[in-house]
Structures are given as C-alpha cells and as structure tokens.
Design goal:
The chain has 274 residues and is α/β, with parallel strands linked by helices. 36% of the residues lie in helices and 19% in strands. The longest helix is centred in the C-terminal third of the chain and has 14 residues. The relative contact order is 0.15. The structure holds iron/sulfur cluster (SF4). The site of iron/sulfur cluster (SF4) has 9 residues, from loops.
Length: 274
C-alpha cells in the first residue's frame, strides 16, 4: 500500500491507562505515531475516533498515512519512572511499515534502557523489530507480545495483507527467543484458523504462556472499540468459523503442553508480570 509519512511534536508521550489496559495492570501506554500503515481490515483503533486521539482523515483513510511524534524520546526521558508498567502500543504498531523509513523506535528504546520502568511491553506483528535486537536486549524487564492471528496465510492475506506472512512471524518469535528475550505469541485478534494447528505452531515457537483475544463484534460488545466494517465483511465469508470453539481447542492444547492460556485483560496481565 502507498502511504505518506508525517511528523508532529507532541505535548506528552506516556498516557495513563484506563479500561482494558488498566484492568490488565498497565499504568501507562506509549503511542509513537498516529495512524498505522499496516492498515489491517479489522483494526479497532479507527472505530475509537477522537477517543484514540485521531483526526477525521485518520479514520477515513486508515493505513494510508501516519504521523510520528518526532519528540517522543525527549518527552519519554522526562516522563519515565521506575514504577511504571508500559504498553507500547494500543493505538498503532511500533514496527509499522513506515518505521523502516522514520526509525523512531531506536531513540525510544535507548531512552527506555537508560531509565527502565517496572515492565516495558512491545505489542507488534512487525519482524522489523529484529533491526533493533541489540537495543531490545539492553532493556531490563522487556516483554514482546508478537501477534500471530491465524495459521492460514491465505486468511492473513485477506485480513491483513500488509503484514508479514505467518511463517516469517513465527520465525521472528523463534529468533527473539533464541536471543534471550521474553516473547509471547499473542493470538489476537483470532482470525479464522485451524485452532489445533495454530496452537501447535505457537507452542513450538515460544516457551511462554499463550494469550488470545477473539475479534470483537458489536453484538457482543455494545460500546467502545470494535472491528471495522472491512474486517466484518471478510469474517462473513467464514460462517463455519466458531471463535469460542477455536479458543477451547487452543486452551486444551496449551494445558496439555503445561502452559497457561487465557484471553482478555486477565491474560494480557501476564505480560506485566515479573
Ligand atoms: S497492526 Fe494493529 S494498530 Fe496497526 S492496523 Fe493492524 S491492528 Fe491496527
């Protein structure tokens, strides 16, 4: 996808959490850019509109541009505290395609390494984070939550065509783990899949507990962020997919392997655990 890259200074970089992230035990979130050039069909963020700090052009053209917070590292140096548990990021992917050009994350990671918080979680689906491996290794109590949304790359191409293929994502998890980092396979959002195969792939790639979250739909979640319409249209092409059944299959596989399995804030809280 063609996208444009913009920059803007920001007044703050760490936001106090509420809702899902607060329930999961995170004190702050860090969002390095507005809008995300992965542009996933189902992304919840544009449905939050101004609540997510977006402008109309962001939710009207999700994924077509992104605006980096150019002074993020300077602000972070002032705002970091040892007691914080920080989730980066609920509103964009820190390793979105545009990050390959702008390279804001190295400055951010160096700043975090200089004043490490109680926990720092990177939520991503971008193998680009391997570019910063040495910087990641320098951060105490870093956790990577790496999104693996399905085992079926044809499904991935439909729902998230600008994200890396599933085999490359699994290989990235293995690489991070081999480098000594704590990395979770996060099955979120759970897209149509063969749940037994997905569980086996995730359990092989990581030695951590498995975290999942089904696609949110308005029928089950009357308020707040939800799946945007292009994702719902794609989901309708898989009427036989039962996410509740898929979650139970994955849970059984994880339990059999001696790992915890969970979804929602209670499971995301594992990312912040010591
Ligand atoms: S990577 Fe995450 S934030 Fe970016 S478009 Fe996809 S779901 Fe949204």
């Amino acid at each position: 996808m063609l996208y444009s890259i913009h920059e803007q200074t920001s007044r703050t970089i760490l936001s106090r959490t509420s809702g899902f992230l607060l329930s999961a035990g995170f004190t702050h979130s860090l969002t390095p850019a507005r809008n995300c050039t992965f542009g996933c069909s189902y992304c919840y963020v544009p449905t939050m509109r101004i609540q997510a700090g977006l402008k109309k052009d962001d939710w009207d053209h999700w994924g077509h541009h992104t605006t980096f917070k150019s002074n993020a590292a300077l602000l972070l140096a002032r705002e970091l505290r040892p007691h914080q548990t920080i989730y980066c990021s609920p509103l964009t992917d820190p390793y979105q395609p545009a990050e390959a050009t702008r390279q804001l994350m190295p400055e951010i990671l160096q700043t975090v390494a200089a004043s490490p918080p109680q926990a720092f979680v990177l939520q991503t689906r971008g193998p680009l984070l391997l570019r910063d491996l040495a910087l990641l290794q320098a951060i105490p109590r870093l956790r990577v939550s790496f999104s693996i949304s399905t085992d079926d790359d044809a499904v991935r191409r439909r729902f998230e065509p600008h994200c890396a293929a599933i085999p490359e994502r699994l290989q990235t998890i293995r690489h991070l783990r081999a480098a000594g980092l704590r990395v979770h396979a996060t099955l979120a959002p759970l897209l149509p899949c063969d749940p037994a195969r997905l569980a086996a792939l995730a359990l092989e790639a990581t030695d951590q507990d498995l975290i999942a979250d089904p696609l949110h739909v308005r029928a089950d979640k009357p308020h707040g962020a939800t799946t945007r319409p292009p994702g719902l249209e794609l989901l309708a092409r898989y009427p036989a997919f039962d996410s509740a059944h898929a979650l139970s299959v994955i849970e059984a596989a994880a339990t059999h392997a001696g790992r915890r399995f969970g979804s929602g804030p209670a499971a995301f809280a594992w990312l912040a655990e010591a």
